[in-house]
Write a structure and sequence with these properties.
By secondary structure, this protein is of the alpha/beta class. Strands 3-2-1-4-5-6-7-8 form an 8-stranded mixed beta sheet, sandwiched between helices. It is globular and about 65 Å long. It starts with 7 loop residues before the first strand and ends in a 10-residue tail after the last helix. The mean pLDDT is 94.
């Protein structure tokens, strides 16, 4: 951080729980506009300063503005001598569409300097690509556009309530890292910087699968010892895959690796842990997902992670067990017994 900053304007695209929470945090520091696809939702947000669908009961700052018009977003950002930051608060399945929407808008109304960060955690279920690859395909050649990822152990409701949280922004652009820090750092929020985009993204994706595994174990009543073992060995799987994909090993001992894994595998607000809990108690995946209003990315991307591991010749036994339970109808207790029956090996062995 240089200690001096150009003026900054922020727009958050996506009025789900996490987009709303980040918009609220940013609005305490910088002029911020929250874009909702649904005009009725944007109107409701503006009238009540509360996201009654995703963050009911949490008041939003009076300084936060709302719109459903993309032109209004670019009008908000397009000011002389002002940096522009867009935060994409969309799930992985929405990344490609959001990037295309931005590219089309930029073609009509280019900005001299624009930073774009995404918050989704997962692999594209169809292609196995990480979000940065999805973004690069659409935005990579656009002049003046820098990209990065914002991640870390964070539940949206707690962030919106102003409770303490630590996040990591990763990008090859030092300017983007500084802008995100300028937008969000302060008060109860700490923002750390990294240049390991792949490591941050792999940690954010694979921890969701491990949270499902821990939830299954808790649903089966396997106890705290089993949960600790799943978290630890899950971290090993996450690290092996990340390093194979070009990540820095140290990233996985930080906020977006171990930190996010612990939170998601143990926290009561974790959607992925909830999926595992219900599976362990005998519910079907289809019934669980039908009852959820938000995405559980671990269930969506687990097959892609398993396929990547196999492609790189890696042992991914917990991921394999989760896929067997979710998609091959293997009873959870049988999947656990298969894990326990694996041959002994040195702890650091691949």
């Amino acid at each position: 951080m240089t200690g001096t900053h150009r003026p900054l304007r922020v727009a958050v695209l996506g009025a789900g729980s996490w987009g709303t929470a980040l918009a609220a945090a940013s609005a305490r520091n910088q002029p911020t506009l929250l874009w909702a696809r649904d005009p009725a939702m944007a109107a409701s947000l503006a009238a009540s300063h509360e996201n009654t669908r995703y963050l009911a009961g949490v008041p939003l700052p009076d300084t936060l503005a709302y719109t459903s018009e993309l032109d209004a977003v670019f009008g908000h950002l397009d000011h002389a001598d002002t940096d522009a930051l867009i935060i994409l608060g969309v799930p992985v399945v929405g990344m490609a569409g959001a990037c295309r929407m931005l590219a089309d808008a930029l073609a009509r109304r280019p900005l001299a300097r624009l930073s774009v960060v995404w918050t989704c955690k997962g692999f594209d279920a169809d292609t196995g690509r990480l979000p940065h690859a999805v973004a690069a395909e659409v935005l990579g050649g656009m002049p003046g556009v820098s990209t990065g990822v914002l991640s870390g152990p964070s539940f949206a409701r707690e962030v919106a309530q102003g409770l303490p949280v630590a996040l990591t922004v990763a990008s090859s652009s030092a300017d983007l890292r500084e802008q995100v820090t300028h937008a969000l750092h302060g008060g109860a929020i700490r923002v750390y910087a990294s240049d390991d985009v792949v490591g941050v993204e792999v940690g954010g994706a694979v921890k969701n699968i491990m949270a499902i595994a821990c939830g299954i174990g808790d649903g089966l009543g396997m106890g705290a010892n089993a949960r600790a073992a799943l978290i630890t060995r899950g971290l090993a799987e996450m690290t092996r895959l990340g390093v194979a994909l070009g990540a820095q090993a140290d990233t996985f001992s930080g906020l977006t690796g171990l930190g996010d894994l612990i939170l998601t595998a143990t926290g009561d607000l974790s959607r992925n842990r909830r999926v595992g809990l219900e599976i362990g108690r005998g519910a079907s995946l289809d019934a669980i997902l039908a009852d959820m209003t938000q995405v559980a990315e671990g269930a969506r991307c687990a097959p892609a992670v398993l396929a990547l591991g196999r492609r790189h010749g890696l042992q991914m036994p917990i991921t394999e067990a989760v896929c067997a339970v979710l998609f091959d109808r293997v009873p959870p207790a049988l999947a656990v017994s298969r894990l326990l029956a694996r041959d002994p090996r040195a702890e650091g062995a691949v």
